[in-house]
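Input/output pair, single chain:
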Amino acid sequence: MTQQFDVAVVGAGPAGIAAALRAAELGASVLLVERADHVGGTCVNTGCVPTRALAKAARLMREIRAAGAYGIRVSDPELDWPATATLVRERVDLVRESKADLERLEKAGVDVRLSTTAEFTDADTLRLRGDSAADGTGAPIDVTAGSVILCVGGHSRVLPIPGAEHALLPEHLLTVTELPRSVAIIGGGNTGAQVSTILDSFGVQVTLLDVAPRILMPSDPDVSEAITREFTRLGITVRTGLAGVDSLEKKSDGTILLTWRDAEGDDPSTAVFDVVIMAAGWPANVEGLGLDEAGVDIERSAVAVDRYFRSSVPHIFAVGDLTGQDMLVQAAQFEAEAAAENAVLGANRATPHHLLPVGAFTDPDYASVGLTEEQARERDSQCVVAVAHYDRLERAIIDDRAVGFLKLIADGRRSLILGAHAVGENAVEVIQAVTTAMAAGADVSSLAAVKFAYPTYTAIVGVAARDLLKTAPTDPTLA
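Output:
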């Protein structure tokens, strides 16, 4: 027997839940299939939420150590790692409870199948296998749908090198029974940077390795430079521009011998670490979906889609990490709702992400939105740039967090804010404020006139905007 639905959604992370709810709201009969035994996806269960909880613990460790400067007598804090790991898992459970996704889906009339996989047998048919595939027997069943929305996310990349099985992936950190004394982190992106800060705050000796010429490559170079400088000051060893990571070898005492090649020479370098963590990328989950059987085109190991999230097969949509584009929760949810509207209504709704704030809770924090300075100058050679440093901010001085800056970029006439980049305390919140102004179409004069509360970190936005008004454009005719 074949079951029929208007829309079948595969994957119950933030994108899948958003797509299923929106499609149901539009009156479609909706099936939601999830291979795990819970909803929420990577971000809630093994990614953003547990990482943020660990970052909170790391922050507390740093603040306790700094308490003496404020006349508070405390002993050096000692981390109870098993207790911290337990708390993080509890926080994940609390977040899941607060979101009440299953209840919302049930109330909306969505048919949810957990512990179930879905694979195309042809462009019009999905074969479901798993505990709740049909009637609880686990027998495979076939499903047809007018439209299919794929929201299956991605996974941590395992480098194809000898001994890779001896490395941990970032989501496995909570499985470690005791903290290592030393760790090598392969990959200097957002995840690698956050894990570096967390473990450094916990007293672990951290070495951060990357083949890229700098860490945080998508960020503005000023952000990368500042974070590298602060990481080095904290004692984190940062090695970039490597020719490659060659192998891992587990020694008899349980430690790992890591071999890599520096760019400047052919001779390999080696070092021994208690743990090696691979944070080397996040490829899309294109395997196991039967995409070849459906005729869906794959480009650069991701599903190729048009601006309306349609794949090469028009009734099959893909959003979020699966497209290999803006791999962030805040992007995926909007994409999923747009795809649901396009699937149910036959609409052509796009959701461009030129205003997509990104950042991480490192030490110090960093965040960005819009164009980097290099990108802005390619678009407008007369663009104007101003950098306001945190040591001009009373709140930062009070809190002894005066390291950092906000960089604002505007077009030559200062009518449009093109980008913003911040390093420092509350950088993510600061960039969120700029994002709001950009989304509202505020020009630099309007932003400079905002009366920010005193003393706050967000006040740096007004400082930078006023500096931007005073900065002369390269072309004097635009002044």
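Residues 475-479 have pLDDT under 50 and may be disordered. The chain has 14 helices and 21 strands.
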